[in-house]
Amino acid sequence: MTAAVASAASAIADAVRSGVDAVQAPLTSSTSESNSKRKRSALSLTAPTPNNIGQVRKLNSVLFPVRYSERWYKDILKADNVALSRIGLYNDIPVGILAARYEQASSHPPEIGGINIYLMTLGVLAPYRRRGLASELLRNLLSVVRPGGTTPPIVGGEVVVPLPSRENVPVPEEKLPEPAKLEPVEIEETKKSKDAAAAAAKANGTKVKAGASATTTPAKETAPAPKRYRYAVQTVYMHVQTSNPEARAFYESHGFKMTKEIKEYYRKGVEPQSAWLLELRA
């Protein structure tokens, strides 16, 4: 870590510490078991929200060589995407981030609904590493979406491109349902209202003008809830800069395999530009 990055990491921790100084000191204990328990009790995860997205920006600026667009931050806050992303806390201080997204699996036609999970970012500030937080973040993601399993029910159109149209492949003779037809409910109800108004007017000895109705405000139609589907998860994958063998070893310890090295993966100005592609499959 360069002096500038170390300084920035320290600034973030100072900004969110709010007077908590204990996290600066290494955890000590008379036994390794109690030390491990204290570490675990200090770790927690929370979902990104509009209120804490600023902390995600700060963490990204320190941890990664890429600047993320405004749309990137909006996307991880979408209702379906937010289940894939977590902020790692140490003693309630944001010190780590994992963000992932759904992607259409290229080996599946859209009708099947097979998807990949792309792990966009996973990082922990240097002073808080080797405490198990990165593993906790990754385990949480794989508990939600794991290759060979299915996603939680999601509205595919918001997070998967292109939108899977059906959960299963239609057989040739199967016909898609006809579009719903509007029944003349309003017409029938209007006729009944007019008849009732005429009857009431006749009983009271008054006349009702043509076209008058006893109906006041028509009932508002409720928009149907969007359909949600579970999609088959094919793979979880990510790119790791080739200058970071420790990160590669970390993912491999969790079952990921390096499948290829991509030259000039990162934009100019990021050195090195090459990256490893790592995948986890069923």
UniProtKB/TrEMBL annotation:
Domain of life the protein comes from: Eukaryota
Chain segments carrying region Disordered: 25-49, 200-225
The keyword Acetylation is annotated on this UniProt entry: no
A GO cellular-component term linked to this record: NatA complex
InterPro entries, per the entry: Acyl_CoA_acyltransferase, GNAT_dom, N-term/lysine_N-AcTrnsfr
UniProt-listed GO biological process terms: mitotic sister chromatid cohesion
Keywords noted in UniProt: Acyltransferase, Transferase
GO molecular function: acyltransferase activity, transferring groups other than amino-acyl groups
UniProt KW Aminoacyl-tRNA synthetase keyword: no
Protein name per its UniProtKB record: N-acetyltransferase domain-containing protein
